[in-house]
Amino acid sequence: THTLRYDVTACFLEGSEQTRLLVLIYVDDELFLRYNGDRRSAKPWACWIKGHGGDETCAREVENLPKEEERLREMMAEMINQKGHDK
């Protein structure tokens, strides 16, 4: 049995329309993949589970991240818009 954990950091710089996004993916508490939303690139850190589905898992996660990034950016924009209405 393995664990898969995502640490997502999304920042919106006030006065800017850009949201910064960083996603770290851990397998069994070991960094596996790092996704930088600014560059829209993913960097495998430890595809050490080669032969155990590591390459396939890495490719699948990289493929899914841009879709998730768009969803997170939309959520962030919605929260910021709501905060503006609350003032």
TrEMBL record:
<protein>
    <submittedName>
        <fullName>MHC class I-like located near the LRC, 2</fullName>
    </submittedName>
</protein>
<keyword id="KW-0325">Glycoprotein</keyword>
<dbReference type="InterPro" id="IPR037055">
    <property type="entry name" value="MHC_I-like_Ag-recog_sf"/>
</dbReference>
<dbReference type="Pfam" id="PF00129">
    <property type="entry name" value="MHC_I"/>
</dbReference>
<feature type="domain" description="MHC class I-like antigen recognition-like">
    <location>
        <begin position="2"/>
        <end position="82"/>
    </location>
</feature>
<dbReference type="InterPro" id="IPR011161">
    <property type="entry name" value="MHC_I-like_Ag-recog"/>
</dbReference>
<dbReference type="InterPro" id="IPR011162">
    <property type="entry name" value="MHC_I/II-like_Ag-recog"/>
</dbReference>
